[in-house]
Model the fold of this input.
Amino acid sequence: MGTASTTKFIKNSAGTLAEQAALTTSAGAGDAQAIPALNASGVLDLSIVNGKASSAGVGDAGKLVALDGSGRIDNSMMPTGIGADTKVLTASEALSAGNLVNIWNDAGTTKVRKADATTAGKEAHGFVLAAAASGASATVYFEGANTGVTGLTGGNVFLSTTAGGCTNTAPSGSGNVVQRVGIATAATELNFEAQQPIALA
Done:
């Protein structure tokens, strides 16, 4: 049975009047014919309206689409070829939201780590919008708005010598890698578009 509300109503139970609680959530078919109640937010719970904020696949067929925690439709709801260009990969180190990342081969396993302009071969391939612990799954975005950055000014943005970071100033030290990674459209937004890196002599 779903979650019972403190709101109750009277029902006829084989000729006897009995109290029954309305439900603020539904557990499925076992709650058929129950009277729903608004939840603590003053709305019907997603379980009552048969809605989902993300999709687990074909088993969610017929369910209503609800916006996710960011106020958008989750990428799992979109048809193939529509939506953000992403890939879920295992993080080989702890990643923070907004980090620019490098995809690499770890003994035959494709993993993701922080991009770093101090090291050739660690150029930026994408970015993450959510933190991920070392060994955990990370969703890598290959294009679009990176809203996890700070301190930028409008114009060209480059991979930073601070691992995972970006900057308006191109690195200039010997052995550094210069890679334009997009355009800053606000102090906290990078329109990511990685360019070919150049290793400085």
User: Anything to note?
Assistant: The two ends are 68 Å apart (CA to CA). The first helix runs from residue 46 to 49. The chain has two domains: 4-77, 86-199.
